[in-house]
Amino acid sequence: MSSNNRKGLLIINTGNGKGKSTAAFGTLLRAWGRGFRICVIQFIKSETGKWGEIKAAEKLGIEWHTSGDGFTSRSKDLDETTARARQGWKLAQEKIVSANYDLIVLDEFTYPLKYGWLDTTTVIDWLKANRPSELHLIITGRSAPVDLMEYADLVTEMNVIKHPYAQGVKGQPGIEF
Amino acid sequence: MSSNNRKGLLIINTGNGKGKSTAAFGTLLRAWGRGFRICVIQFIKSETGKWGEIKAAEKLGIEWHTSGDGFTSRSKDLDETTARARQGWKLAQEKIVSANYDLIVLDEFTYPLKYGWLDTTTVIDWLKANRPSELHLIITGRSAPVDLMEYADLVTEMNVIKHPYAQGVKGQPGIEF
């Protein structure tokens, strides 16, 4: 995947809409089409119904980690949520520096930052020092910290204009999860 | 794919951001993961570089039509762009009523409406009369007509907050196309 024009982008999909993770999966599909090496780490415990993309990733042979299976709590001092977020970030750090990937997706990574389970400044400083120059990194989630958006190359905000839940329609498998 | 709770959604991804088509491809990936039957029709002639998603779709066995290969101009009275849009819509109508698909993506379909190559009211009336109740339909593109958004079930607006082109960084293959 190397070329002289290649510059790894830090991409943030934020806002209150449904398309944040979905757009990341679309980019993943596009990258997979080009033979990129891809890793996805989901930071918020998967909802039971979130199967469409995981099933697809399995079929495509894309490496996929969720807080539900990969991040075990080893600290007695932190609650499980915080511990999972820190384990997830530790895993992300290993993947980022490994040089084994062209694209890494940190899905819903803004939440550990927003809720203070991870320190935003520390995370940004680490990325500045350690992010390989050709690695593309996508971070999704609501309320992305301003400092992180400042550091990012591409920031898109997804906003709901109209939503079927408001009309009493249930979430549709294969479309919304 | 049938179930009593299934309701086909009309989904619109609009706004000035990069994520409109990308989010549609993410939904496509999720739907493919669940075994949905999928068809994509791209209304604006593909840019040369738009290969990542088409390569992926080929590998996944997803039916994919672009204005570049599928829509030949047969009218002497219309310019080629208008003729292609009308051919594309005709193809879309055939696919929509065929009952052969669970999800159809009309990528960049807002442009033929916006520029008047197709009449928005006629298109909406046709969809109201002919869209199968279980079919999911995704329409992407800037400037979605208000009447179409009114008719839709789910509307998301993607807006650019920060873009690397402004900083002189070129579009990155596998990520942006």
Task: Show the helix and strand layout.
Two copies of one chain form a homodimer.
Chain A (H helix, E strand, L loop, with lengths): L9 E5 L4 H15 L4 E5 L9 H9 L2 E4 L13 H18 L5 E5 L2 H5 L5 H11 L5 E5 L5 H6 L2 E9 L15
Parallel strand pairs in A: 1-5, 1-6, 2-3, 2-4, 4-5
Question: What does it look like?
Answer:
- Two copies of one chain form a homodimer.
- The model of chain A is unreliable at 68-75 (pLDDT under 50).
- Chain A has a single domain, classed as P-loop containing nucleotide triphosphate hydrolases (Rossmann fold).
- Chain A has 177 residues and is of the alpha/beta class.
- The longest helix of chain A is centred in the middle third of the chain and has 18 residues, at 80-97.
- Helix content of chain A is 36%, strand content 19%.
- In chain A, strand 2 (38-42), helix 2 and strand 3 form a beta-alpha-beta unit.
- Chain A has a six-stranded parallel sheet, with helices on both faces.
- The first copy, chain A, is globular, with a radius of gyration of 16 Å.
